[in-house]
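Blackboard transcription, Thursday session:
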Amino acid sequence: MTPAPTLRAATEADLAAIFAIYDEQVLHGTATFDTVPKSEAERLDWFRTNPGGRYPIVVAEDESGVVGWGRLYQWSPRPAYDRSAENAVYVRADARGRGIGRALLEELLRLAPQIGVLTLIARIVDGNPASLALHEALGYERIGLMRRCGVKFGAVLDVWMLQRVLDAPR
Ligand SMILES: CC(C)(COP(=O)(O)OP(=O)(O)OC[C@H]1O[C@@H](n2cnc3c(N)ncnc32)[C@H](O)[C@@H]1OP(=O)(O)O)[C@@H](O)C(=O)NCCC(=O)NCCS
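(Written on the board underneath:)
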């Protein structure tokens, strides 16, 4: 059996591996509505744009390297939204179905209250059963469907909004 990966905070040295995983969906999937891979400078900007240094980026790593990553994003620059954040989770195609996505999202849910985030939001394209199953397994609820809000590969796409409300830390 493949040993479980370890989780750790991402560094800039992980950006090539993070974007190798992400760009598979940029170019060939609908999990992200990005359509153009980021340049080196844009990758650094993605890593460094972290208002207040608050929002974690976590990687899962095993002997084959980085097998997945997850992060929290600021939901809105308007300060009254500071208790909300959006999450993203991506697992390398050959490492899916081994619990790595669950481990990454559980880690984000553990870290969120530590930075004062008590509402997690996920946007998931209709037709991504793996991501819907992952989020619903971890207590996210569908709160709406944004109809016909995107186009990729010539298909008009609907996007589910999901939410997980956390308890304040004791
Ligand atoms: C979505 C994704 C992160 C899930 O990661 P993963 O490591 O394969 O998922 P896990 O093995 O941790 O499984 C998590 C749960 O989802 C379920 N699941 C995983 N893949 C599934 C699939 N293809 N269909 C249905 N359920 C699935 C598992 O049964 C599991 O449920 P359980 O923990 O209650 O048993 C991964 O498929 C991925 O990276 N996909 C492409 C990028 C993406 O869609 N990211 C999310 C953007 S919103």
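Lecturer's comment: The helical segments are 15-28, 40-48, 100-111, 129-137.
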